[in-house]
Predict the structure.
Amino acid sequence: SYDFSLGEMSTTALPRTPSPAPHVPKPPTAQRDHAPGDFAGAVDVAKEEFRVGNLFEVVLSQKFSDECRAQPSHIFRVLRERNPSPYGFLINLGAGEFLVGASPEMFVRVEPDTSGLRVETCPISGTIRRGRDALEDADNIKTILSDPKEESELTMCTDVDRNDKSRICQPGSVKVIGRRQIEMYSRLIHTVDHVEGYLRE
């Protein structure tokens, strides 16, 4: 079902009035949003900001665009077959734009329990390819768990997550309840932490 509810409100039985609108391919207005060399310049700026202590973590990105003639529903179907993930999405953004993706990472979960509103996140950092068989999988798991770089990257992500939660959660309620747990997917192995807290009233 695509219905959801929040408190006493629900989308159940709401009319679905828009008529189907098939995707009509159109060429992108720009192939990329950075001129050649600009992204490398942003990396240099970030490195200097790290050096002087103004940055703790940063995610730089640039967008590349190209025409896609396939229907978004077809792309989503192929993605589910080739890269099965617990979290997938196909969203019509309007104006002929669609967002299609799949991710192993749960962004956030909030649910009530006897202690209040529990919030949980699962930072992922640390990735290695799947092996050809169970023995090679085991070797790759040993490799990633013994890599100090992979451990420190996950620690950094989890520290940021804990700090963010401490701003909105009850004092003392933020805890790491799972550390460097192994999650295996069709092509990759990840290390994952689990962090919980209880939201303030």
DSSP finds four helices and nine strands in the chain. The longest strand covers residues 188-198.
